[in-house]
Amino acid sequence: MMFRIERDVLAEAVAWTARSLPARPSVPVLAGMRLEVTEEQQLKLSGFDYEVSAEVTLEPQTGEPGVVLVSGKLLAEITRALPAQPVDFVVEGPKAVVTCGSARFTLLTMPVEDYPSLPAMPPAAGRIGADVFAAAVAQTAVAAGRDDTLPMLTGVRMEIEGDTVTLAATDRYRLAVRELKWNPGQPDFSAIAMVPGKTLADTAKALGSTGAEVEIALSSAGGTGEGMIGFSSAGRRTTTRLLDPEFPKYRSLLPTEFAAKAELSTGPFVEAVKRVALVAERNTPVRLAFRGGEVVLEAGSGDEAQAVEVLPVDYEGDEMNIAFNHQFLLEGLGALDSDRARLQMTTSTKPAILTGGKPVDDGTPDYRYLIMPIRLSS
Questions:
Q1: Can you name the residues that pair with 314 across neighbouring β-strands?
Q2: CATH number at residue 279
């Protein structure tokens, strides 16, 4: 087996494939990356750890058919460091030789026969713009839980009904919901999938750079490929196992009536929260006091460092004091696709809704970020 290919093309493909390889594989071969030159002169790079698979298809300048398995992380480090010249990859017995300009690396191969076969893609369900998909996933995955003892909260719930996709994630302290349109293969397609949050975020971000459409492969209820979802774009494809679909009934958590509404410029609000939060301990809140045309941001107490900043605000409602975890507030503000942030509140102890961006057909915002306040001591 051998092939020649441009260094940048190979390095990008190897990096894409290597991102899904396990840091601590259960068996050594799962740390490997499978490289195959097909009879059709295509180069396929793939990785699989029984949960997530990734595969890239390239067109090398030259190639001889064959298959080899080498350390994926090592190959990624090598290709990233190579000079900007064509790369020659040749298998010589139990070793693989990578040559680029005056650089030459020899890698030990791993037993290909011990490597698991990649899962087949579920049926194609529809398409969506890669950049739109990446932005929507980033907005919701920020609220997914990181506690593996509660797996149902570590995922992003994907609800598909016709041409509408709703993404939702929560870690019990905040909830992010994003609604967007896509192009389904069938107009009446309906499905619900619970996708691991980190995997979905990494995949959407990587595919978002292709500038093409992303094809989502997902079975409807009871169909073939149940329990798995696939994404493909521009010669790249990835699959992942789905989590248990159990998820909180989040729509009932979203308040529909509010006692107060504040609107202010997103950028200055973010910078002010960051500055005030410099004196906030990890679990202490940033306090917001809304008074007419201004909001006073405070953190710290009399026994420690303190910070205060005042911002102008368009405010409707009675005076209100409310406090939030500053990191959760910053992540919500960072997810807004708008230069204006709207914070809608009921009371100082009930969930608030942070919105921005464009409304959908019924007038509701296409992105909503619910954040639980921290109770202030009297």
A1: 263
A2: 3.10.150.10
CA of residue 192 relative to chain centroid, distance: 18
* Euclidean distance between CA atoms 359 and 44, whole angstroms: 42
Burial class (CB in 10 A: 0-12, 13-18, 19+), 341: buried
- The SS3 assignment for 71 reads strand
Q: At residue 264, what are phi and psi to the nearest 5 degrees? A: -155, 165
Phi then psi dihedrals of residue 30, to 5 deg: -70, -15
Q: Are residues 101 and 141 in the same domain?
A: no
- Count of domains for the chain: 3
Domain boundary among 251, 274, 296: 251
Given a contact cutoff of 8 angstroms between Cβ atoms, the answer to whether 350 and 275 are in contact is no
Whether residues 247 and 258 fall in one domain: no
User: Rounded to an integer, what distance in angstroms lies between the CA atom of residue 186 and that of residue 258?
Assistant: 39
Pairing status of strand 228-233 against strand 86-92? unpaired
Calculate helix-pair angle for 72-81, 7-18, nearest 10 degrees: 150
Torsional class of 283: left (φ above 0), alpha (ψ -120 to 50), beta (otherwise): alpha
State the Cα torsion 36-212-123-150 to the nearest 10°. 90
User: Tens-of-pLDDT digits for all 378 residues of the chain?
Assistant: 999 999 999 999 999 999 889 888 989 999 999 999 999 999 999 999 999 999 999 999 999 999 999 999 999 999 999 999 999 999 999 999 999 999 999 999 999 999 999 999 999 999 999 999 999 999 999 999 988 888 889 999 999 999 999 999 999 999 999 999 999 999 999 999 999 999 999 999 989 877 789 999 998 655 545 789 999 999 999 999 999 888 889 999 999 899 999 999 999 999 999 999 999 877 789 999 999 899 999 998 777 789 999 999 999 999 999 999 999 999 999 999 899 999 999 999 999 999 985 555 556 789 999 999 998 775
Examine residue 63 and state whether it is found in any structural domain, yes or no: yes
Indicate whether 195 and 240 sit together in one domain.
Answer: yes
276 is in which domain, residue-wise? Answer: 254-371
DSSP percent split of the chain into helix, strand, coil, nearest 5:
20, 40, 35
